[in-house]
Design brief:
By secondary structure, this protein is of the alpha+beta class. It has helices at residues 3-52, 69-72, 117-122, 162-214, 230-280, 285-312, 325-336, 359-375, 422-427, 434-444, and strands at 54-58, 61-65, 78-87, 94-102, 126-132, 135-145, 151-160, 321-324, 344-351, 354-357, 382-390, 393-400, 448-453, 461-468, 479-480. It has three domains: 3-167, Beta-Lactamase, CATH 3.30.450; 230-312, Signal transduction histidine kinase, dimerisation/phosphotransfer (DHp) domain (Helix Hairpins); 321-480, Histidine kinase-like ATPase, C-terminal domain (Heat Shock Protein 90, 2-Layer Sandwich). It contains ten helices and 15 strands. A hairpin with a 5-residue loop joins strand 6 and strand 7. The longest helix has 53 residues, at 162-214.
Length: 497
């Protein structure tokens, strides 16, 4: 059963239940009111007869004098009888078998039997429905008494119920037919409304099937208007998911192509050197050196890929300990001076700052930034390290006087296997994964990695590593001046947003 049909049946069932309860209440309320009006009329007629009757006592016996009912109750729907005791010759006991007075109606003109013989014989009073000569009548039986409370006889008043029966029948027909029509109309409208409301879901299903059949992740669900209903939000979320999935799929294909390309070069070199050794019949030191170099390069590449895979799956183990960033920065500055490659390594202004994280991974990030700066800074250039505190953030900067990065390249350098100068990067042993790893580790520490550059050779670039300060770190820590060859580092704007 489709969702559209289930919704239609649900709404129709709820409406049918409501109409049934409402119609039943209306029907019985109408019947009660109409019957109550008839009973009131019968009671008024019986009271009128009783009030107009008189009684006299002759020789200790009360005799009732009944008014003329022919003139007072000449009605086509109302009939009245007055019954008085009649003495039986057998046992001398009174029997209410003497019809004293009666009125004439169109339906009961010649009716001389009691209107409600059962109540009359039992001497009971009350009102109930009876069938007289095929006519549905409402009959009231009331006692006729004198001033002392003696029962002189019984009054029976009756009214025909044909009009009320007809009204009830018509009301029942109207309620049944109206309810059926209302439920049918509600089902039709509910079906159309459900079809219109669920139409985007059909589009989503068709789009998903087309994507599955054609492997086309570029398809999107058309979103009309700016409605904030659930289906529109679902379509928007689906499109966003497909956009993200398409980007990941493209990145995966590019990743596989880049990995294949990167592995092909060292494997080709290894194979060539092996072939050369086979032809020479001995070990060539230069070939062995090339094989070792390319093997180490592949080992580094596989290690970097494993590290990125662990970071992407959030399975990269990270320690969470307090780290003095200023001490970490000074240690790194001392290490890189050894392989500075004729590039001057200096430390600018640094503040005391403490963060929480993995010291080895953060050191890996900073070393990657510094070694990249050294690679792309010509001999005689300068690389300056700095550390500052900005609104609850520790900002570590690596500034060089190298080639610079063009504005259109600055967002791409953090992509995997992306290199501005591919030939030079490969010659330097780079695979284009260092900045990607640095960015991912930074994100896992709740920070952000930024770059600013004018893209002009000689003015270089500034990489800024933003890390949140420890909460217990004082907001205004004293500034510790360090020996430096360069002061007044450029800033990259406020902290991450």
């Amino acid at each position: 059963m489709s969702l559209r049909l289930r919704l239609t049946l649900w709404y129709s069932g709820v409406l049918a239940t409501v109409l049934f309860v409402f119609g039943t209440a209306v029907y019985f309320l109408l019947e009660f009111n109409l019957t109550r009006q008839v009973d009131q009329t019968l009671e008024d007629a019986a009271r009128q007869i009783s009030e107009n009757s008189t009684s006299i006592t002759i020789r200790g016996q009360s005799i009732a004098t009944i008014p003329d009912l022919e003139s007072d109750f000449a009605s086509a729907v109302l009939y009245a009888q007055v019954w008085v005791p009649a003495t039986s010759e057998a046992d001398g006991l009174p029997r209410f078998g003497g019809l004293e007075r009666s009125s004439a109606t169109t339906n009961l003109a010649a009716h001389e039997a009691p209107l409600d013989a059962e109540r009359l014989e039992a001497g009971q009073t009350g009102v109930r429905d009876v069938n007289i000569n095929g006519w549905h009548m409402r009959v009231l039986t009331a006692a006729l008494t004198n001033s002392r409370g003696d029962v002189l006889g019984y009054v029976q008043t009756a009214a025909a119920m044909q009009m009320i029966d007809r009204a009830r029948s018509q009301m029942l027909s109207v309620l049944i037919l109206g309810s059926i029509g209302a439920v049918a109309a509600a089902a039709a409208i509910g079906w159309l409304a459900a079809d219109r409301a669920l139409r985007p879901l059909s589009v989503i299903t068709q789009t998903a099937q087309q994507i599955s059949r054609a492997d086309d992740l570029s398809r999107r669900i058309p979103v009309h208007g700016t409605g904030d209903d659930e289906v529109t939000r679902l379509a928007t979320a689906f499109n966003a998911s497909m956009e993200r999935l398409e980007q990941l799929f493209i990145a995966q294909r590019r990743f596989l192509a880049d990995v294949s390309h990167e592995l092909r070069t060292p494997l080709t070199a290894v194979r060539g050197n092996v072939d050369l050794l086979e032809r020479m019949g001995g070990a060539d030191p230069e070939s062995l050196s090339d094989i070792r170099s390319e093997t180490e390069r592949m080992t580094r590449l596989v290690g970097d890929l494993l590290l990125l895979a662990q970071a992407d799956s959030n399975s990269l183990p990270l320690a969470r300990v307090p780290i003095d960033v200023d001490s970490l920065l000074l240690d790194i500055a001392r290490e890189v001076r050894v392989f500075g490659n004729n590039v001057q390594i200096s430390v600018g202004e640094i503040d005391q700052a403490s963060v929480v994280g993995d010291p080895d991974r953060l050191k890996q990030v900073v070393l990657n930034l510094v070694t990249n700066a050294i690679k792309y800074t010509p001999a005689g250039g300068r690389v300056t390290l700095g550390l500052g505190r900005v609104e609850g953030w520790a900002r570590l900067t690596v500034t060089d006087t190298g080639l610079g990065i063009a504005p259109e390249e600055q967002q791409k350098i953090f992509d995997r296997f992306y290199r501005i100068d591919k030939a030079r990067s490969r010659a330097m042993g780079g695979a284009g994964l260092g900045l990607s790893i640095a960015m991912r580790i930074t994100q896992l520490h709740g920070g952000r990695l930024e770059v600013t550059s004018e893209g002009i050779p000689g003015k270089g670039s500034t990489f800024s590593l933003w890390l949140p300060l420890r909460p217990e770190t004082p907001a205004t820590a004293p500034t510790v001046a360090k020996p430096a060859t360069r002061r007044g580092l450029r800033t990259a704007g406020p902290g991450p947003r």
